[in-house]
Design brief:
Layout (H helix, E strand, L loop, with lengths): L87 H12 L60 H8 L1 H41 L3 H11 L5 H22 L3 H10 L8 H19 L2 H10 L6 H19 L2 H11 L5 H6 L9 E5 L9 E6 L5 E8 L2 E9 L2 E6 L3 E10 L14 E6 L8 E3 L4 E6 L8 E5 L5
Parallel strand pairs: 2-9
Antiparallel strand pairs: 1-4, 2-5, 3-4, 3-6, 6-7, 6-8, 7-10
Helix pairs in contact: 3-4, 4-5, 5-6, 6-7, 7-8, 8-9, 9-10
């Protein structure tokens, strides 16, 4: 079908709206009665009493009342809404006229319920509609506007103002009720969970105050960020760990317990520092009981003045000094006893750790190096203390001598080159420790080149004068006790 094709308008048969011709009936004489069995009673009234309504012109729609539409400016409602506007006689005549309508023209239904058959190509029922031609709306909700002057729906007999006023109350009441319900639901939706969370918070706090930290932690954890639940979740968990650490401490596992307490050092659990000190004290006491006095000394000293830690530290040091004595480490024993001062009998024990000076003379000599034709004299001119000498041939120790203050000693040696070392001090700990770490140890140097060898030829006698007041031709190089 071409796009330019247009559906022709439906054919409308002309309708004759003229009144049917009635045979005139001669009026009865004036004053004569109308027969009772007359089928129609017609009262003739003057034009002034009842208006004559002419039929609608051709092409003008007929309204529901069978009347043409009101002229412009005349209201279309409530024309015959009240019988008070029509005389009783006219109302009776109109009712007779309404019941004596002429038959419908040919091709029209006898009543408004009998419709003529649909033209060919049109649906038989109002539910089967043909497709709308191009340019026409597809649904009954999109209808073209009615021609000007035609009514699109039956006129209402109720004024819009009265209808709006009458129908506006119920929606307003329903709206207010709906708002109230929404508000109540909103308040309930907020208040009930809030009340439940508040009760749960109070119950968790009560469990915490009772010391039931596991139950309190579970309750606070479920509340997430409600009030201070996050803080109390961490705090209750710290108290759970605290209880675990105490249980480990009570089992005597002090090192493991200290590690657990250390994790809580910066938490809100009180007295963690005290528990750390208790663990350290128990650990130190365990070292002492096991004989590990060095570790016990370090542990007790780290505790400072906690309980009797200072006394326990000295007690451990005293025991350590005794260990040194048993091991032959006299100087170390002396140093520990001496550092303890008046603690118990430390002064007396310190004095027993060193020995009296030996007599001046040779303490040791290798016979292979004895020769009476060569000798070294040592003149010690110090007024206090003692002096201990070692003579080496290469790396081999061949002789040792001890000289007291203001004394001289001679040693005979075979010809050769020798290194002479000297140690001086106030406390003698034996030939192995000499004067201990508090002594002074040196090697003799004989010229400006740093030569440390003293050469002996056949029949030579060399004198070494210590603390010479003038013409000194020997210098010294410092040594440690271990290299002496």
């Amino acid at each position: 079908m071409s796009d330019d094709y247009q559906v022709p308008p439906p054919r409308v048969e002309p309708t004759d709206f003229s009144e049917p011709e009635l045979q005139p009936t001669p009026p009865p004489p004036v004053g004569a009665p109308v027969p009772v069995d007359s089928p129609v009673r017609v009262n003739i009234v003057s034009p002034a009493e009842t208006p004559v309504i002419p039929p609608a012109p051709q092409g003008m729609p007929v309204s529901e009342t069978g009347l043409p539409p009101a002229p412009q400016g005349m209201p279309i409602t409530e024309v015959f809404s009240s019988q008070e506007l029509i005389p009783a006689q006219l109302a009776q005549e109109m009712s007779v006229y309404a019941t004596a309508q002429p038959p419908a023209p040919e091709g029209f239904p006898a009543s408004d319920t009998e419709l003529p058959p649909a033209p060919q190509g049109f649906p038989a029922t109002d539910t089967e509609l043909p497709l709308a031609p191009q340019g026409f709306p597809a649904t009954d909700t999109e209808l073209p506007p009615a021609p000007e002057g035609l009514l699109t729906q039956a006129p209402s007999r109720v004024s819009p103002a009265r209808k709006e006023k009458k129908s506006s109350k119920k929606p307003l009441i329903i709206s207010l009720a709906a708002v109230a319900v929404v508000l109540l639901v909103g308040v309930a939706a907020f208040a009930i969970p809030e009340l439940m969370r508040s009760n749960a918070y109070d119950q968790a706090m009560e469990q915490f105050e009772l010391g039931n930290y596991a139950q309190a932690h579970e309750g606070f954890l479920a509340l997430e960020d409600y009030k201070e639940a996050e803080y109390w979740t961490r705090t209750s968990f710290d108290f759970i760990r605290f209880e675990d650490a105490v249980a480990v401490y009570d089992r005597g596992e002090y090192k493991e317990a200290r590690e657990l307490f250390a994790l809580l050092e910066y938490s809100s659990v009180p007295n963690i520092a005290e528990w750390l000190n208790k663990c350290d004290y128990a650990i130190a006491d365990g070292y002492y009981a096991a004989g590990d006095l060095a570790a016990a000394i370090t542990a007790f000293q780290a505790l400072g003045n906690y309980q009797d830690s200072e006394y326990r530290a000295k007690q451990c040091r005293y025991g350590r000094a005794e260990q040194y004595l048993s091991e032959g480490a006299y100087e170390l024993a002396y140093e520990v006893f001496h550092s303890l001062g008046s603690f118990e009998d430390s002064d007396a024990r310190a004095a027993g750790c060193h020995f009296a000076f030996p007599a001046t003379g040779i303490l040791y000599q290798d016979p292979a190096y004895y020769y009476d034709m060569c000798a070294i004299d040592i003149d010690y001119r110090y007024t206090a203390g003692g002096s201990y000498y070692k003579i080496y041939s290469g790396e081999k120790l061949v002789a040792t001598l001890f000289l007291n203050a203001n004394s001289t000693a001679r040693v005979y040696l075979s010809p050769g080159s020798y290194v002479v070392k000297e140690g001086t001090g106030d406390r003698w700990f034996g030939e192995e420790l000499a004067f201990g770490t508090s002594g002074w140890y040196t090697t003799m140097i004989y010229d400006d080149t740093g030569n440390e060898y003293l050469t002996l030829n056949h029949n030579d006698l060399v004198t070494l004068t210590m603390n010479a007041s003038d013409n000194a031709n020997i210098t010294e190089r410092g040594e440690s006790l271990s290299s002496f």
